[in-house]
Specification:
The chain is of the alpha/beta class. It folds into 3 domains: about 130 residues, Barwin-like endoglucanases (Beta Barrel); about 270 residues, Rossmann fold; about 220 residues, Dimethylsulfoxide Reductase, domain 2. Helix content is about 35%, strand content about 15%. The chain contains 30 helices and 33 strands. The strands form 10 sheets. Strands 5-4-17-16-15-6 form a 6-stranded mixed β-sheet. Strand 30 and strand 31 form a beta hairpin. The protein is globular. The relative contact order is 0.18. The N terminus is likely disordered. The chain binds ligand MGD (2 copies) and molybdenum atom.
Length: about 775
């Protein structure tokens, strides 16, 4: 089925991509300037950007990369600036804008144009007879949402959050769910790093990475798997560049040659900017096949074991292995049993390439392993992580300065929301504390994650979906099935800054509630309020918005959560929603009372330069695992894919990518500058030899069809065949356009993270 939101503003034929310029540099400045022009941002922009990611300033609304204690003069990147400008637009999606269009007409608009309507200004309620959103008062909205939620069983409601909202609103949102009687608190990380939260926990006892910024000053080598720094966490390029300049060696595994990991021109460095001098980032860039990291790391481990066999007692950290780990022998036996031809076939890399990479590992005293969606969004994602942890454990590269594992998180507060209780699993939530603090009876039963919530929407057992940020209808797998099921929900509520696709699949009772963004001034009782977030490296920062709010009717996320909670729950003198809304310090006191080890003196510490560190047990070699040690993982297969790719008739592996011009489902524009792809997102990228092998021609329109046969036909097209430097056997294209091709059932084994990087598809010409 063709995507109804096709959009090619320039009519440009994507052709063959060529981009050989470094990341950063003047190109990134132009990217910012274009959004600046287009977005009609307010004149405040310059002052807001100047405060971005500085102590006491505004923490970036885009990614979760760390905020250093000593920031650069401009501590923001191209994409962080775009996110800020997107939020500071002067365009307004007013009731008049909604009055001019039916929801059916809005559905004809491209996602890019939909968000371009601007900031939401009024609470809106869907009116089915006119097929329009009409303005309502906050009092009416809260009263009806409360009545609807009270009328259903608590477990029929799902409270989703995208990782934007601050720790204060998030803490109250989770409290609201538990006071109501459910743990249905799925989060964007269910589609993202849930693989990390679940599997790192069982492997090394923590659900997050072990590194802090200081480690990047002391590492000798970095092994980089499936994370596109140049587009998705560009500020991380600074410590990477500094590390390289001090002699650290970087090895990258990625099917795509991502510019940011090849070379970098520092926009903060006038000499690099003026003379075009750049820093080469990766010493070895290995174009692994999608899902081939298991085999690639198996190859590295075999090389390490061979080195130890050749010089016993000199290579492995035996003391560490013997005293701190479990499962070494069994895991290593399984790796030794793997044959090189199989390793080469699955990884797409030669033994020589892997030996060169292993030599870098062996030559380094301190090694950091970095990863992103390239490892997590696979059926056997647990094994991707398990193999990376195995590699690191062999030489004691976890829990000491300059070494460790570092997942690069997505949304700016995605990690923190989990920390303060947004969790469908109650294991790490101090329910007793909640009982004691609030006289409530929080349920112990595990709630629904994103995939389970979708199953509930499909089978009718879920009746309400509240979204604190985000755009689930676009972000989820199996989009066509989910979009069709959404309107059967009794209640849909979206707390959002801008209109998006999820608003166009209204439930029987549907509200879109406009909230303040992080850049906006948030005053309560005449006093400016701060909100807080936790970065990828577990540091917590305060953020204070200063921009004029888009309308007097926008409420803060915290006020909206509190308003809904008050309207839903029976009166309870310990649930002081109104007081908490007036003063966020009180909410931080609650967070501190609930999590005293990590958040003591929260109010006093939140504006500390560089943020305050929440600590990490694995970093101190305290292993909170079942075995009480760091666990080696025994590999059971050589690929992270859930399907086979051998044989003439084998399905292709679909990798869904983010462009450099989007933040998740928010499409800023149509330039994927760093990959040399311009003009259209309706493309399927294929290796040139594969195009010939399959008898296709460049530019030819084709349809992709899912190769999972479960009675559902999943197709997207037409997509223009575009030659691109990729390993054989795979195709790539853009998220979210290709989401209909990923079945809901095709997910990581332990965490149900959708396998967005490894779904099997066929090309239909
Ligand atoms: N500008 C911008 N910044 C963002 C976002 C955004 O959309 N735009 N999104 C935010 C969010 S929520 C997240 S989670 C992060 C996502 O950031 P990343 O983790 O970088 O996620 P992706 O861009 O989806 O894919 C990462 C890389 O994985 C590679 N890859 C695909 N399959 C494989 C594989 O099997 N093995 C290996 N080794 N590599 C593979 C791809 O080529 C790609 O370079 O970024 C955050 N930051
Ligand atoms: N095929 C494929 N699908 C994927 C992925 C992939 O790599 N491939 N990646 C997955 C990943 S990693 C993630 S995290 C999810 C993302 O899924 P989501 O987090 O659900 O989606 P976003 O696109 O980040 O949400 C964008 C919307 O958030 C709202 N918004 C923006 N700022 C704010 C704010 O400050 N407050 C509030 N309340 N609302 C705000 C705006 O209305 C905007 O339209 O997508 C997943 N889907
Ligand atoms: Mo994400």
């Amino acid at each position: 089925m063709a995507d109804e939101t096709k959009h090619d503003p320039t009519g440009h034929d994507p052709g063959t991509p060529e981009y050989d310029h470094p990341t950063g540099g003047w190109g990134s400045m132009k990217g910012i300037a274009r959004i600046f022009g287009e977005e009609r941002s307010s004149p405040l922009v310059a002052s807001v950007l100047a405060r971005q990611n500085k102590p006491g300033g505004i923490m970036c609304t885009a990614c979760a990369w760390a905020k250093p204690a000593k920031p650069h003069p401009a501590e923001f990147c191209e994409n962080g600036a775009k996110a800020t400008l997107w939020e500071l637009t002067r365009a307004r999606a007013t009731p008049e804008v909604f009055a001019e269009r039916t929801v059916a007409q809005l559905r004809e608009m491209h996602d890019h144009d939909l968000e371009q309507l601007g900031r939401l200004t009024h609470p809106m309620r869907y009116d089915a007879p006119s097929d329009r959103y009409l303005p309502v008062s906050w009092a009416e909205a809260f009263a009806e949402i409360g009545a609807e939620l009270r009328a259903m069983e608590p477990e029929q409601a799902v409270f989703y959050s995208s990782g934007h909202a601050g720790l204060e609103a998030s803490y109250l949102y989770a409290l609201f769910a538990r006071a109501m009687g459910h743990n249905n608190l799925p989060q964007s990380s269910n589609m993202c790093h849930e693989t990390t939260s679940v599997n790192l926990k069982s492997q090394i006892g923590v659900p997050v990475g072990t590194c802090i910024l200081e480690d990047f000053d002391h590492c000798d080598a970095i092994f980089f798997f499936g994370q596109n720094t140049g587009s998705n966490s560009p500020r991380f390029l600074h410590p990477l560049k500094d590390a390289v300049q001090r002699g650290c060696r970087i090895v990258t595994f990625n099917p795509v040659r991502e510019r940011g990991l090849i070379e970098f021109a520092d926009p903060q460095n006038p000499i690099q900017m003026t003379f075009g001098k750049t820093t080469k980032i990766s010493e070895e860039y290995l174009q692994v096949r999608p899902g081939g990291d298991v085999a690639a790391i198996a190859g590295l481990i075999k090389c390490v074991l061979a080195a130890e066999d050749a010089a016993p007692g000199t290579v492995l950290d035996r003391d560490f292995i013997d005293t701190q780990t479990a499962g070494f022998e069994e895991a290593m036996d399984a790796v030794r049993a793997m044959e090189w031809p199989e390793i080469e076939r699955h990884s797409g890399l030669t033994r020589e390439m892997l030996q060169r990479a292993a030599d870098i590992y062996l030559g380094a005293r301190n090694v950091i392993g970095i990863y992103g969606m390239g490892l997590t969004q696979h059926v056997e994602g647990w094994l991707n992580l398990g193999m990376l942890v195995n590699l690191l454990l062999l030489r004691g590269n976890v829990g000491r300065l300059g070494a460790g594992i570092s997942p690069v998180r997505g949304h700016s507060n995605v990690q923190g929301q989990r920390t303060v209780g947004i969790a469908e699993k109650t294991g790490s939530v101090p329910l007793d504390k909640l009982r004691e603090l609030f006289d409530i009876d929080p349920p112990e039963k595990e709630g629904l994650n994103a995939v389970h919530a979708c199953e509930g929407i499909l089978d009718g057992s879920v009746r309400a979906m509240v979204q604190l940020g985000g755009n689930l209808v676009r972000a989820l797998p199996d989009r066509e099935r989910m979009e069709a099921a959404w309107p059967k929900l009794r209640l849909t509520v979206s707390i959002a800054t801008k209109p998006n696709r999820s608003h166009l699949a209204p439930g029987e009772v549907a509200y879109v509630l406009p909230c303040l963004g992080r850049t906006d001034r948030d005053e309560q009782d005449g006093a400016p309020q701060a909100v807080t977030m936790e970065d990828s490296l577990s540091h917590v920062h305060g953020s204070i918005g200063t921009a004029e709010p888009p309308s007097e009717h926008c409420l803060s996320e915290l006020a909206i959560v509190a308003g809904m909670a008050e309207a839903t729950l029976p009166p309870n003198p310990k649930l002081r929603w109104r007081d908490w809304t007036r003063n966020y310090d009180l909410v931080r006191d609650l967070v501190a009372a609930t999590y005293p080890d990590e958040f003591h003196d929260f109010n006093a510490r939140m504006l500390q330069p560089g943020g305050f560190y929440r600590g990490n047990a694995a970093r101190e070699r305290r292993w909170k695992t079942d075995s009480g040690r760091a666990n080696f993982t025994t590999p059971t297969t050589l690929t992270a894919l859930g399907h086979d790719t051998v044989g003439e008739d084998a399905a292709m592996t679909l990798v869904t990518l983010r462009s450099n011009d989007q933040f998740n489902t928010t499409i800023y524009g149509f330039s994927d500058r760093l990959r040399g792809l311009e003009g259209s997102r309706e493309v399927v990228l294929i290796n040139r030899d594969e195009i010939a092998r399959l008898g296709l021609a460049e530019g030819q329109p084709v349809t992709l069809r899912s190769a999972i046969e479960d009675g559902v036909t999943r197709e997207v097209g037409p997509l223009a065949v575009t030659a691109f430097d990729l390993p054989p056997g795979c195709v790539a294209g853009y998220y979210p356009e290709l989401n209909p091709l990923v079945p809901l059932s095709y997910h990581e084994r332990n965490s149900q993270t959708p396998a967005y990087k490894g779904a099997p598809v066929r090309i239909i010409s």
